[in-house]
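Field: sequence (string)
Field: structure_tokens (string)

Example rows 1 and 2, in order.
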Amino acid sequence: MKINILQDIMSANDRIAAKNQQLLEENQVIAINIMSSPGAGKTTLLLETLRRLKSKFKMAVIEADIASTVDAERIIEEGVPATQINTGGECHIDANMLSQALSQVNLKGLDLLFIENVGNLVCPAEFRLGVTKSIMLLSVPEGHDKPYKYPLMFTTTDAILVSKMDYLPLSDFDMPLFKQVVSGMNPKARIIPISAKTGQGMPDWIDWLESLLEKKYK
């Protein structure tokens, strides 16, 4: 019985995700779902990304947290509109939550929509949202063994950003081993070592985003 209930939940979620995808495609919006554990640097990366792109593209952000509006307020201070989702205890957002948030976003003329998911390495990967691409951040302090422990997250993302690379000299993070393991699990995923603090890898990340926008305008 529990299995049937779970199947019903996921089936309903996927139907709404398909509607979200259709809405975004009709408005030619590139939507990026950003996932990571808490403290991996999602908001810091997002703020630096907005600073580098806001003069070129029209962007908006959907911020998801269990509680508070702290991160959304920081986004708005950068001059980019932000819509808040408070999950009230849920460790992820689902397609219905995103659908409700999309109804509050002005999609007309929008180029990029970033969705900052709730910090968690398990639940967010289980729910389709209907976005264009999904990425995840894994910070150097978390260790290179996380693909073994949270395989779904690493196999369902389009790009993996290894964040806080400025900590690498202080850690035992094995980058060659990490790349080898992830490439075996998800050979299509782009791996980008990055540090929003020092700027390392930011051009590669920006290039990846702009390549998506180039396809939009072809």
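Row 2 begins here:
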Amino acid sequence: MPPRFWMITNREVKKNNLGKDRAPGKDADAVLSYWTSHAEKPGDLKDLKAWSSVSVDKFKRELAAVAAKFPRVDDEQNEQQRHVALFIHGYNNDWGEAADMYGRIAVNLFEQRRLGTCVLFTWPSDGKKLGYIPDRVDARATAPDLSAVFNRLYDWALERQTEAAKDARKACRAKISVIAHSMGNYVMQKAMQYTWTRKNQPLLVSLVNQLLMVAADVDNDLFKGGESSDKSDGDAIANLCYRVTALYSRSDSVLGLSAGFKHFGKRRLGRSGLDRNQLVPDNVCDIDCTSLIADKNVHSAYFWEPKTLQVMEEVLRGKDRYLLSTPAVALNPELVPA
């Protein structure tokens, strides 16, 4: 029976826990570890005893086997194609909190809605109430490790594309998607820049089908280069992804705190949406979720509020931004048909 849950981490491994520091080692191959679980209850994932450490080769082999069993769909039914998704948690998450949030997403968004399977990438966030500055340092240090994961995904996708060109029956049955939360978007941002540079832009294939930037703790002018190539982090993301969707809420008090720490520069993307004074790439949009979240814990509630889960499902399926079943308004609202 294949694993139900998947995890990649660069955290130090202790006896019965994953620590708050990066594992010792000079490069990603040395620090990354791979884990699988057959846990019956998502809540059990907070206990490392529910996980089994496996080699990178076994992890790749078993995950590929799961993806190979996804149903094959015709081109006109591509919204039904399932995903292998990577979830990157945010700051102020210790290991247990990260695993708990991942369990909710893996079950509520992927299992129950038949969207495919989800992999947790957990990095050494300090998990402290006032840990913003050290977590930002940890986030930047993690970027090369996450980039190594992206590089392997890219090589795997390119192999599948090459095989499909020779034999359509060997076409990949899964889309690759990424969901980044809070400062996990900063980790993702820096990692994609490494990957884009390493893979010698322009790329031959898109790495990520759908990127969901949830409550993103990054500057809201990240994509200010627009359609021009300026080799910025935003340029790297836009080129690596087929579509980028930022979900934000003006009621996010956590990102208000973040803006207080980072009193210079720009507003937070996850609180203000994209900078309306800047042109952005055509494949980048945002969705105002302020009216969709009733929970006071706005920053994390995206992952258990029914309305935002529905939005995420439709975005991952590839539904057009103007056809989403939500009153939220996407980028360039003047283009929405009357």
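free_text_note (row 2): The first helix runs from residue 28 to 31.
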